[in-house]
Amino acid sequence: MQTDQLRALLADVAAGRRTPEQALASLRGQPFEELGFATVDLHRGLRTGFPEVIYGQGKTPEQALAIAERLVAAGGPLLVTRVSPEMGAALAARFPDGVHDPHARCFHWQREEPADVGRGVIRVISAGTSDLPVAEEAALTARLMGHRVERVHDVGVAGLHRLLHHRQALETASVLVVVAGMEGALPSVVGGLVACPVIAVPTSAGYGASFEGLAALLGMLSSCAPGVVVVNIDNGFGAGYAAARMNRRTP
Amino acid sequence: MQTDQLRALLADVAAGRRTPEQALASLRGQPFEELGFATVDLHRGLRTGFPEVIYGQGKTPEQALAIAERLVAAGGPLLVTRVSPEMGAALAARFPDGVHDPHARCFHWQREEPADVGRGVIRVISAGTSDLPVAEEAALTARLMGHRVERVHDVGVAGLHRLLHHRQALETASVLVVVAGMEGALPSVVGGLVACPVIAVPTSAGYGASFEGLAALLGMLSSCAPGVVVVNIDNGFGAGYAAARMNRRTP
Amino acid sequence: MQTDQLRALLADVAAGRRTPEQALASLRGQPFEELGFATVDLHRGLRTGFPEVIYGQGKTPEQALAIAERLVAAGGPLLVTRVSPEMGAALAARFPDGVHDPHARCFHWQREEPADVGRGVIRVISAGTSDLPVAEEAALTARLMGHRVERVHDVGVAGLHRLLHHRQALETASVLVVVAGMEGALPSVVGGLVACPVIAVPTSAGYGASFEGLAALLGMLSSCAPGVVVVNIDNGFGAGYAAARMNRRTP
Amino acid sequence: MQTDQLRALLADVAAGRRTPEQALASLRGQPFEELGFATVDLHRGLRTGFPEVIYGQGKTPEQALAIAERLVAAGGPLLVTRVSPEMGAALAARFPDGVHDPHARCFHWQREEPADVGRGVIRVISAGTSDLPVAEEAALTARLMGHRVERVHDVGVAGLHRLLHHRQALETASVLVVVAGMEGALPSVVGGLVACPVIAVPTSAGYGASFEGLAALLGMLSSCAPGVVVVNIDNGFGAGYAAARMNRRTP
Amino acid sequence: MQTDQLRALLADVAAGRRTPEQALASLRGQPFEELGFATVDLHRGLRTGFPEVIYGQGKTPEQALAIAERLVAAGGPLLVTRVSPEMGAALAARFPDGVHDPHARCFHWQREEPADVGRGVIRVISAGTSDLPVAEEAALTARLMGHRVERVHDVGVAGLHRLLHHRQALETASVLVVVAGMEGALPSVVGGLVACPVIAVPTSAGYGASFEGLAALLGMLSSCAPGVVVVNIDNGFGAGYAAARMNRRTP
Amino acid sequence: MQTDQLRALLADVAAGRRTPEQALASLRGQPFEELGFATVDLHRGLRTGFPEVIYGQGKTPEQALAIAERLVAAGGPLLVTRVSPEMGAALAARFPDGVHDPHARCFHWQREEPADVGRGVIRVISAGTSDLPVAEEAALTARLMGHRVERVHDVGVAGLHRLLHHRQALETASVLVVVAGMEGALPSVVGGLVACPVIAVPTSAGYGASFEGLAALLGMLSSCAPGVVVVNIDNGFGAGYAAARMNRRTP
Amino acid sequence: MQTDQLRALLADVAAGRRTPEQALASLRGQPFEELGFATVDLHRGLRTGFPEVIYGQGKTPEQALAIAERLVAAGGPLLVTRVSPEMGAALAARFPDGVHDPHARCFHWQREEPADVGRGVIRVISAGTSDLPVAEEAALTARLMGHRVERVHDVGVAGLHRLLHHRQALETASVLVVVAGMEGALPSVVGGLVACPVIAVPTSAGYGASFEGLAALLGMLSSCAPGVVVVNIDNGFGAGYAAARMNRRTP
Amino acid sequence: MQTDQLRALLADVAAGRRTPEQALASLRGQPFEELGFATVDLHRGLRTGFPEVIYGQGKTPEQALAIAERLVAAGGPLLVTRVSPEMGAALAARFPDGVHDPHARCFHWQREEPADVGRGVIRVISAGTSDLPVAEEAALTARLMGHRVERVHDVGVAGLHRLLHHRQALETASVLVVVAGMEGALPSVVGGLVACPVIAVPTSAGYGASFEGLAALLGMLSSCAPGVVVVNIDNGFGAGYAAARMNRRTP
Question: Does C214 touch chain E (CB under 8 A)?
C-alpha cells in the first residue's frame, strides 16, 4: 500500500465512507510487504534490464526447459548456466535460435542483440587454459546483460611479459574480471596496475595443496592489492553479474 | 623516461647530437620499466585522487609517523588504519589538525574537505554493534577518497523490520557495503533487494563455530543472491577502497 | 529378568525352595541391566509410537528387505531412508502397498493412516529447489510418526517477499523445519519472525566455498536469531524426527 | 504502535478530532514497517513471555548498562550473558536487587518470580565440571523465561552408572539440554534413553584434537541417536532459549 | 547396595523377617545400577590398582584441593596433572610429603612406594627438549600406577645415530611411549625396530604448518609402521595410563 | 655381512691372510648396518611370529600375487588386506587353499592353524553394521597372528542395553578393539567399563559433518575415558596388529 | 625487438632514413616490455637448456598434440606430464620415436640424448611402491633437462636398514629428491644424513587421516631436519625441475 | 668406536693378542652405529662448515646459554634463532663480542669472518615490511654459514615496477630466497623471471583469511611457476640453511 492509497483510505474514514473498524480491517488484511516487494522487484527489472538466470546444475533437463519456456515467453533474454550435455541438447532442440556453448557450459537465447547499457568495456582476464570455461561464463553473463566484453587469455604471472603486453587494455577497462586457479596471484598483480574495480574469480584448476580452489580463494581474499573483491570458486556467472552491476550507466 | 624525453633523445640522434650507440646506451641505462610504472602510478594518482594509505598493524609508531610525514608533506590526504592507541597518540601529537577515531582504529588528516568525485552515495550497512568498527573503517576510507558516505547500523536479519525500514536508502545507493559477522546473512538479503553493487564484509564477531569470521566468509561467498562480492574478514578498508573504485565518475 | 520373575524368585526364597545363597547366585548371573533396559525400550515404544527406521545407505537391498519384513510383521509402520533405486524396487516388489518416493529417496508403508499425535502442525520450509529432497525426507518422517505436516517451498532470502508472503503460515506452526543450502541464511530470517522451535537443516546444495554444506552448517550454528537448533548436513530424517519429538502432545 | 493505539487514532479521525492529514503525519512519523514488525514482536512477547536478552561480550559496561536500564524500565525481566567481572560489578551497583552469577557469567533481575509457562520440567545435564558454566547459562535463561529447570551434573559417559542412576529424571523431563565437551558423547547416550527433545551443547572443554569444541560439535551433529539437535559451541543461552520454545504450553 | 547388604536382605526373606513383597520394594527402591556399577568400579580399583587422577586444568586450586583431600583420606595415591604454579603451591602447602614437579606440571603423593604390578619396563622416548614435559607426565602417571619406567630423551630422527644407540633399550621394553612434535616421525622409525606395543604422543611443539600438533598427529595416525597407536596432542597422562594398562600382569 | 662372514674375516686376520689394514678396508666398505638390521629383523620375526602383510590397495593383482608367492614359499602365513574383487579372484585361483573374505576385503592362507601365542582373548566390538568390514579386518589380522578373537557386533551407544548385555565379555577380554563411525562414542563408554587396553578405530561410516570419519577420529582422540588409544580411520589391520602386540605372552 | 633491431632503428634515424617521429611510432607500436621479457626468456632458454613442458591434465589430446608439434618443430626436447592413456596413444601415434611411460604418466621425445649439464648426480629416493609414479615423473623431468639421475626405491623408515644400506649413495648425491606418502617421515631421516639439498615430495598415497597427502605435506614442512624444502602433493615434475635448477653447473 | 680404535683392535688380532672370537665379541658389544654416525656427522661438519644452530623458542635463557657455551668452546660459529629479549640479554652479557639482532630475533657470534664457501650470491627478496624479520633470519643464517647474501626489500607484486627495477639482481643470483605473507604471490612472479633455485618462505603477515600464513603457504605450494620450493611458515632459518646447501661449491 502506497502513500496515496493510505491517504485515500484516511480520507474515506474522515468522510464517513468507511468506519474506523473497516479501515482497520483493510490495513490488517493487506499483504503490505508482499505488495511492496513485488513492486520493488518489478521496478528493478524495468530499471536494470537484468534477466533472470537459470542455474542448470542440480536441475533435470525437464525442469530447466519448463523455466526456460516461461522466460522466453516473457521476451527473454535467456541464460542457463552449468548446462550438462543432455540439458544443452534439450534446450537446443526447443530453442533452435539459441546458442549452446559447451565450453562455457551455458545456453543462451535472446530476441535481439541487447542495447549497450554499460559505461565502458568489461575485460575478462584469465591466467591459464584451464580457467577458460569460468572466464567464458563470466563474459557471456555480462554480454547478455547488455555490456561490452573483451577477453584477454593465458596471461598468468609466471610469464609476466604476456600480461604487461596487455597493459593498455587493462588500464582502459571499466571493470576487470580476473580469473585464476592454482595460487591465484593474477588479481594482485593486475590490481596494482589499474584504477578500476577488480573482481577476482578463483578456479578449481590445480591439484594437491590447491585443494580444489581453496589456495586461490584464500590468496585472492588476502591480496596485497587494495580494492580487489572476490566471488566463489568457479563462479564465473557471479563475477559477470557483479561486473554488469558495477558497469551500469545509472546512477 | 617520459614520452617527451624519448622524443628529445630521438631528435638528438636525428640531429647528430648523439650517435646511435650513445642513444642505445642511454636507453639501456634507463630504468625503463621503473620509470614507466612510476609514471603510470602518478597518472593514476592524478586521475583517481586515491590517496596512499598506511596499514598501521605491525608497524611501530615511529615507522607510521615517518611515512605519514612524507605523505602530509606531499599534500595528503593521510589515512592510517589499524591504529593502536599509542600510534594514535603519536600521530595526534604530530598532526594536531588530524582526527584519531579510536572506534574505527583510524587516523586521518586532510588539508581540506575532498571534492566529491563519486557518481552517487555509498551506503555502509552493518548487522550488529560489534560490526561497527569495521563498518566505520570502510566509511572513513571511502570518505577520504572523495565519496559521499551514509551509514545504516544495527539492521541484522533476525529483526527484518529494521532492515526493511531502510529499504529506500538501500535502493538509492550507488554502492552498498554490507558488514556482518556471525552467519553473515545480511548481504544475501540486501542483495535481493537492490540493483547496485554489493560488497560483503565478513567480520570476526561471533564465537564457537563462527571460527573467527570463517562462517560469515563462507556464507557470503556462497550467497544465493547473485552479484555479491566479498573482501577479507574484518577488511573494512578494502571494502571502502573497492566501493570508491566502483563509484568513481570515470569512465 | 522381569518383575514377575523377580517376584517368583523372592517367593521361592520365602518358601524355602531356594536358599538365600542360591537366590544370590541367580541374581548375580542374570543380565539385570539388559532386562531393565529392554523394558524401558518397550515402554518407550508403547508410549511414543515412534517407529523404528531403516537407514538404507550402506546396506544391501537384501539386508534392508530382511529388516523391513521383521518391522512389517510387527505391524509397522515402515520407513526406509536413503533408498537407492535398486533397493526401492526390491521393497516395492515385496510390499506392493508401500510407497517408494524416489525424490525423497524413501520407502514407507503403514497398515493405516496414523492417528494425529501432535499438538499442532509442523511446517517444513525450504530455500531452493535443490533442497527439496532433504525437505521431503523431513516431512515424510514426521508424517509417518503421526504428525500433520505442511510444506512451503522455494522461499530463499534473496527474494524476501516470497518468504514474507507466508508469514502467517510461519507464525501458526507448532514447529518449523527450515532447509537451506548455500549460505544457509533462511533459518536466521525465519527465527526472527516466529516464537516456535526452529530446526535448521543445512544441505550440500551449492558449490565451491560452500564446501558440501559446511558454509550452511557453520552459518546456521552461528545464527544471530536465538533459539535456532541444527542437525547434520542433509539430515532430513533427523530433523523430521526431532520435530516430531517437539510436537508430541505429551507431556 | 499497538492495535489499540491504531484504533484510537482512527476513531479520532472518524470523530473529526484529527484531520486525515494529521493522522497521516502521525502514521508517517511512526516507523511503519517497524511498527508492523514491532507489533508482531510485541504480540510474541505477550504470547510467549520471552524477555529480550543482552549479549555482554563485545560491549562496554556502559553500553550494557544503558540497554539494561531501558529493559528494566519496561518492567523486565533482565538477562545479561557473557558478563565480565567489570560489567557484573557495574550492573550490580545499578541494580542492587539483581543477581550477578559469576560462574554462569550472567546478570539477571526480575520484578517478581516469573509464572510457570511451561508444559513440564527442563533438565540440564552436564558431563564434567568444566561444562558447568555453559550448563548454568542454559538453566538461567530458561528459568528467566518462566520454565522449571532442574540440573544433573557430572554424569559423563566414562562412568556410565552415574548417568543411569538419573534415568528416571531423564525420562520424566519435558526437554533435555545436554552439555558436554571433549568427545561430546553424552547426547548420543541420553538420546537413546528418552523420548523427549534433546538439545546438545558442545563446549570448548578439552584440549589438543578437541580443537576448542570442534570434536564435540562434529560428534553431536553425527550422533547415532536420532532426533538430537545441536547449538553452537558454548552457547548455553541458545540452548536454554530453544528449550524454552519447545516447552512452552502453547499451542 | 553391596553384596553383603544383598545377602542380608535375602537372609531376611528366608527367615521371614521380610515378605517377598517388602524385599521387592527394597530392591526396586535401590539404585541398582549405581550399586552394580559402583561395585564394578570398586572391583576394578582393587584389581588393577589404578588410582583416580585429578585433571588440574580448568579447576580452581580450591576445587583441586578438596578432591585431593578426599583421595588422600582414602589412602591415595594422588596424582594431579596440568597443575598451575598456584595450584602446585596450594597442594604442596597442604600435603608437605607430596611432590610438585613443575616441569611435568604434576603434583603427586603416595603413602609408600607402589608395588611393581607390571610385566616389564615401560620406556618413554622423546624426540626433542620441548617434548620433555609431556614425556614426563606420561612417565609419572605410569610410575604412580605401579610400573617401572625408564626414559630416553632427545633422540629425534634427524640424528638417527642417537636413536640407534639406544636400540637395545628399545628392544627390551615391554611397552614404548614415543613422544614427538614437529613432523612426529619418531614413532614410525621406532615402530619398525621393535615388537612391543608403541604408543605415539604428538606434542604441540613446532610452529607454522605444524598447526599446534596437527602435523604430528596426522603423521602418527598415518604411520607406515604397523601397530602404532596414538593418543591426543600433548596427552602424556593418557599415554602413561594406556601403557600401564598394556603392561599390567593380569590376565 | 653376516656373523659368519665377520668371523671368517677375523680368522683371516689372525691367520695373517689379511693385514689389519686390509680388514679395515673390508669392514669400511661393507654395509655393516644392513647386516645388523637384517639380523634384528630376523630375530624379531622368529621371536614374535608376526607375519608380513600385503596391503592390497594401490597394487595390481600381479604385484600382489608375486609378493604372495614369496611369502607362501617362505611358509606363510599370508594376509592380504584391501583386496579388490579382481585381486581376490587372482589370489584364490593361485592359492585354492586360501580364503577370500570379500566382506573384510582380505585374503589369507596358512599352512596350519596358528598356535595360540596370546595371553587372553581379544574382543572386537563394533557399533553398527556399516562398521563390520573394518572390524572383520581387525579380527582376521589378530587371528592370523595367533590370537584368540571374539566379536561383539551392533552395540552402538544409542541402545545402551545391548552393550551392557555384553559387559562380562568386555570385562574378561585381554584387549578390546572398538570400531565405530559417526560420532565414535563407543570407545568412551567401553573405556569406562573395563581395565584392559582399549584400541579405538574410527570408521568413515556416516555422512555430512562426520566428514569421512573425521568426527569419529577427533572424538576418540578427545575421549573422556583415560587410556583409550586410537588408530587411523578404517584401519582395522592396524588395530588388529596393535592388539596382537599387546596380547603377546612375552615378556 | 632485439638489441640488433633497436640498433638498426637508431641507425636509420641517424642516417635520416626515418624521422624521429617515425622512430617514435615504431617504438611505441612495439611491445617493448614483451620484447624485453621475451629476450630474457630466450636468454634463459639458451643459458639453461630447460625445455618447455606440457601439463597434460585438463587438456584434450588435440590440445596437447598441437602444442607438442610446435615444440618438436622447435627441436625439442618434449615432455608431457599427467598423460592420460588416450593422450599417450595420440602422442605415440604422432611421434613414434617418443616414449610413453604410462607408469610415470609421461610422454617424452628428444632428438638426441641431452648433454650432461649437471654438477653431479640427482638421486630420487622413494618410500613405498605407491610413490613410484611420482618419483618417476621427477626422475624423467630432470633427465630430460640434461641431468644424471639415479633411483633408490622402497626405503621407507619403518625398515630403516633398507635406507641405511644406501647411505653412501645418499652422501654422494648432488641433490636428493625424496618422495613419500603416508606420514612422510623419510625426508626428515634423510635430511639428517646428508649435506646436499633435499627436496621433499609428499604423495597422496595413504588413506583416512593422511587426507590425500595433507599429513605428509604438513609433516615435511614441519621437518626437524633443517634445510628440507617441499613441493606440492604428487608434484614430481616440480621436484625434478627444481632439482635440475639446483644441480646446474652455472654459476 | 673410532677408526683408530678399530685399527688397534685389528692389530691385536693380527698380533695374536686377541683371538678372532674375542674381537668378534668386542665388535658386537660396541655401539657400532653410533660410532659410524658420529663419524659421519663429524665428516659432514668438516666438509660443509655448517654450524650447529640453537632454536631459542621453548628454551629458557639458561638452557640456551649452556648449549651456547659448549658451541663457542668448540670454536663456533654460534647462531641462536627466535631469541626473546631476555635470552638475547643473557647471551649478550655472556658473549660481549656477539651480536644480538632483535629485529631478526637472532644472536650470533663467530671467532672470525667465515670464508666464502659459496658458488655465488644468495639474494633474499621480501614483499613487505612485516616480512623483514623472517627475511633477516634467512640472511643471517646463510651469512654465518659462509655465503655472500644480499637483500632486496619491499618489492611486493602490487607495485610491480619496484620488483622489475631489481631484475638484474634477480637474474644474477645463485639462489633466491623469496619471503612473502598475505597471498604469497611474489615467488610465482620471481620464479618466472629467473633460472636459479627459488626458495619460497610464507610468513604469517596478514589477517583474516590469510589464516596465519596458510594462504601464502598454499599459494606458494600451488605456484604456477615451475621449480619453486617451499619451507614452513616464518621459517627464515630453514630457508637460509637450504639456500646455503644449494649454493655450496661442492660437488
Answer: no
Q: Do A13 and D14 touch (CB under 8 A)?
A: yes
Measured in angstroms, the CA of D45 and the nearest CA of chain A are apart by: 19
Query: What kind and span of H or E run contains D63?
Result: helix D61-73
Burial of D26 (0-12, 13-18, 19+ CB in 10 A): middle
Residues H82 and A247: their CA atoms lie apart, in Å, by 50
State the count of interchain CB pairs (< 8 A) between A and C: 41
Which among D10, D20, D24 has the least Cβ separation from residue A20? D10
> Which chain F residue shows the shortest CA-CA distance from G132?
F58
H contact chains, 3+ CB pairs < 8 A = A, B, E, F, G
Q: Are strands B106-109 and B78-81 parallel, antiparallel or unpaired?
A: antiparallel
* Distance, CA of B36 to CA of B18 (rounded, Å): 23
Closest listed residue to residue B207, CA positions, set G175, G158, C221:
C221
Residue A2, C-beta contacts closer than 8 angstroms, at least 6 positions apart? none
F183 touches chain D (CB under 8 A): yes
Instruction: Tell me which chain B residues have a C-beta less than 8 angstroms from the C-beta of H130.
Output: 58-59
- Does G211 sit within 8 Å of E158, measured CB to CB? no
Inform me whether the C-beta atom of residue E208 falls under 8 Å from chain H C-beta atoms. Answer: yes
Q: For residue E45, what is the DSSP state? A: H
Type of residue found at D39: T
**Residue ranges of chain F with pLDDT lower than 50?**
1-3, 28-49
Scored b (16 or more CB within 10 A) or e, E5-31 reads ebeebbbbbbeeebebeebbebbeeee
Q: C-alpha distances in angstroms, D119 versus C239, D48, D141? A: 22, 13, 16
- F44 contact E CB<8A: yes
- List domains and CATH numbers for chain A: 3-7+29-109 (no CATH), 121-247 (3.40.50.1970)
Q: What distance in Å separates the CA atoms of residue A15 and residue H31, rounded to the nearest whole number?
A: 112
Chains G and D touch (3+ CB pairs under 8 A): no
Length of chain D: 251
Q: Who among C58, C63, C217 is closest to F209 (CB)?
A: C217
DSSP class of residue B75 equals T
Closest to G84 measured CA to CA, from G102, G68, G67: G102
Helix (H) or strand (E) holding B44: helix B32-48
pLDDT in tens, G45-77: 433 446 678 888 878 898 889 888 888 887 778
Beginning with the edge strand found earlier in the chain, give each strand of the sheet holding H228-230 in spatial order.
Answer: G148-152, G121-126, G175-180, G198-202, G228-230, H228-230, H198-202, H175-180, H121-126, H148-152
Residue H212 in grid coordinates? 596465519
Size of interface E-F (CB pairs under 8 A): 94
H/E/C letters for each residue in chain C?
CCHHHHHHHHHHHHCCCCCHHHHHHHHHHCCHHHHHHHHHHHHHHHHHCCCCEEECCCCCHHHHHHHHHHHHHCCCCEEEECCCHHHHHHHHHHCCCCEEECCCCEEEECCCCCCCCECCEEEEEECCHHHHHHHHHHHHHHHHCCCEEEEECCCCHHHHHHHHHCHHHHHCCCEEEEEECCCCCHHHHHHCCCCCCEEEEECCCCCHHHHHHHHHHHHHHCCCCCCEEECCCCCHHHHHHHHHHHHECCC
Predicted model pTM: 0.86
Q: Summarize pLDDT for A146-184 with one digit per residue, the tens.
A: 999 999 988 989 888 889 889 889 989 999 999 999 999
Q: Write out residues 10-39 of A within 8 Å (CB-CB) of D.
A: 10-11, 13-14, 16, 19-21, 23-24, 27, 32-33
- Round the average pLDDT of chain F to a whole number and report it: 84
Residues of G in contact with B5 (CB under 8 A): none
